[in-house]
Amino acid sequence: MEPVQLTKVVNNPSAHEWQPVIATGKFDISTQILLRNHYSDGVYGFELLTKFTDTSGRTFWVDRGWVKAGKNATTQPELPGISPELVIITGRLRLDTSLPQGSFFAIPTDSKSGLIAKANAQGGDSSSTFYLDLLSGNLASLTPDVPAELPELSDGPHMAYALQWIFFAGLIVYGRFLIRRDVLTRKEL
Length: 189
Hints:
By secondary structure, the protein is of the alpha/beta class. It has two domains: 4-142; 157-189. It is built from three helices and six strands; from the N terminus they run βαββββαβα. The chain has helices at 6-9, 115-123, 158-188, and strands at residues 4-5, 20-40, 43-54, 59-68, 87-95, 130-137.
């Protein structure tokens, strides 16, 4: 799909999830979140979310892609720089509840509300119920080295699971046969 202005789809974000949009505004580099338990090419890291305020005053989060973890648990990862000036970004519109699951630092994920809503509640902030997966921007430094991944569309491993359970059922039937045979043999003695 061709990117459209965010203002055209923002009134009904659930009907426009995955739509590429264009937004103009500023990043708030003082408000960033690292979403842990994300890997890229087998390397552990984080998804980096940064708060963004567009020119109409609307605040939302932008997933700026994957960043590599520090050398140990006490070392903060090296975050890519971001310009505090007015920028134009292009990203995929995503719903709060579809944010990649994982755990924010100190934010539990046990309910159905989205992670952004939890972060807002904990920080006393308010932002929109959607976020953007950053694809590119008017500055080269805005394009993530490792952008947020698209979900893999496949039939999944359902056939393997079905065969696995059929095998387990066969083991149960065979086990019952062996137990019954053993019980009948003991009765004859």
